[in-house]
Automatic annotation (TrEMBL):
Its cofactor is Zn(2+). The keyword DNA damage does not apply. It comes from the Bacteria. Keywords: Hydrolase, Metal-binding, Zinc. This is M20 family metallopeptidase. PANTHER family: ACETYLORNITHINE DEACETYLASE (PTHR43808), BLL0789 PROTEIN (PTHR43808:SF9). Residues 190-287 form the Peptidase M20 dimerisation domain.
């Protein structure tokens, strides 16, 4: 016999799928602020129906975010942050080339895996605390924060996320699950590498490549030196990657290039490694007399496993109590807004959203069968964290 939370979630599945279809069809690429605002309109309406009231609408630097506050208004009350985002990487029109569908238990469509399924799960889970098996919130609280710029680095929402996270019992991030070391799907994420992003700008001196190249300072040659130097900052033994990605130099084929630049992607498991690489990049020295200027820096701190371990253990216990088997938790290279919450010292558990695959790819998909059990797990974990009855 299913646990009552699982039974509730299974009964709610048709409503969750109906909401998900609307959200996927309403495209929301991060860079299109009009589309993101339109998506926020839709999600506001869905959330108002499921939670019983409309969210606060927060527009920061043109990006629309939504915030629901449930339960006790006491700032000292135990609080859980549910963190989701409604922007995607898919440009408007992708719904025509990657149409929404549910076939053979598989949901397809832009953003279905990353992370619109998790967003809908969060809304329905939060709704149970207004009226349902989660029970009323009298002396505790939940914040459901839905941001609109996660896929492009959360620059507009970072301060908001930090503000809402501080003082919380835990932050639960509805990003999609991963596969564990044995290849089993549905693994929660207890670690994420921190990300840093740099641009190395090189100012040399242009000259005619045929008649007086010696009068120039070749920015492309300097770029080649710096790419090698930057790569040497990587340290595979501790999981630190330093990857030159995009580069540009020169104007014409008969001109010594006077200017060049290249971008660098850095991923590290610890803040100490992020700072080591940051220092190394800022200490790069010219080989040719060109001038080097570094822009960018640390974008998201790592979600270190110490920030997730206790909440992960509670999730395991909740899962067992409601009859759910969880794979081993994992550490991944990609960052999320969970990095930000962990960065302000809040216990953070990530990967609580969809089971599926193909994030940002043509085969993006989510599995229908996993939605009820993971939504039940989410409700049970919230109750546990807020000191409610055992699931």
């Amino acid at each position: 016999m299913s646990h009552p939370l699982v039974t509730w979630a299974e009964t709610s599945l048709p409503d969750m799928l109906a909401d998900l279809e609307q959200v996927i069809r309403c495209e929301s690429p991060s860079s299109d602020h009009v589309a993101v605002a339109r998506s926020a309109d839709l999600i506001s309406g869905i959330g108002a129906r499921r939670l019983g009231f409309a969210p606060e609408r927060l527009v920061i630097d043109g990006v629309t975010h939504l915030r629901w506050q449930l339960g006790s208004p006491d700032p000292d009350a135990p609080r859980v942050l549910l963190l989701a985002h409604h922007d995607t990487v898919w440009p408007v029109g992708s719904i025509e080339t990657h149409p929404f569908s549910i076939q053979d238990g598989v949901i397809r469509g832009p953003g279905s895996f990353d992370m619109l399924t998790g967003l809908v799960m969060a809304i329905h889970a939060a709704g149970t605390f207004a009226d349902g098996p989660g029970g009323q919130l009298a002396e505790s609280a939940i914040t459901l924060l839905v941001t609109g710029d996660e896929e492009v680095g959360s620059n507009a929402s970072r301060a908001l996320i930090e503000q809402e996270a501080r003082g919380c019992v835990a932050a639960l991030v509805l990003e999609a699950a991963g596969d564990d070391a044995a290849g089993r799907p549905g693994a929660l994420k207890i670690g994420r590498k921190g990300t840093s992003m740099y641009r190395i700008n090189i100012a040399g001196r242009a000259a005619h490549a045929g008649t007086e190249p010696e009068k120039g300072i070749n920015s492309l040659v300097e770029l080649a030196h710096q790419v090698v130097a930057v790569q040497r900052l990587a340290d595979a033994s501790v999981g630190t990657t330093v990857v030159p990605t995009v580069a540009r130099s020169g104007t014409t084929t008969n001109t010594v290039p006077g200017r060049a630049w290249f971008d660098v992607d850095v991923r590290a498991l610890t803040i100490a490694e992020q700072h080591r690489v940051d220092e190394g990049i800022r200490e790069l020295a010219s080989h040719t007399g060109a001038t080097l200027t570094v822009t960018g820096g640390i974008n998201r701190p790592p979600l270190e496993t110490a920030a997730a371990q206790a909440t992960w253990e509670r999730a395991q216990a909740v899962a067992e109590s409601i009859g759910i088997e969880l794979p081993e938790a994992i550490v991944v290279g990609g960052a999320s807004d969970g990095n930000i919450t962990a960065g302000v010292g809040v216990p953070t558990l990530d990967g609580l959203g969809a089971v599926g695959g193909g994030a940002h790819a043509d085969h993006e998909h989510a599995m229908v069968a996993d939605i009820p059990i993971r939504t039940a797990l989410l409700v049970g974990l919230i109750r546990d964290l807020l000191g409610g009855e055992a699931p």
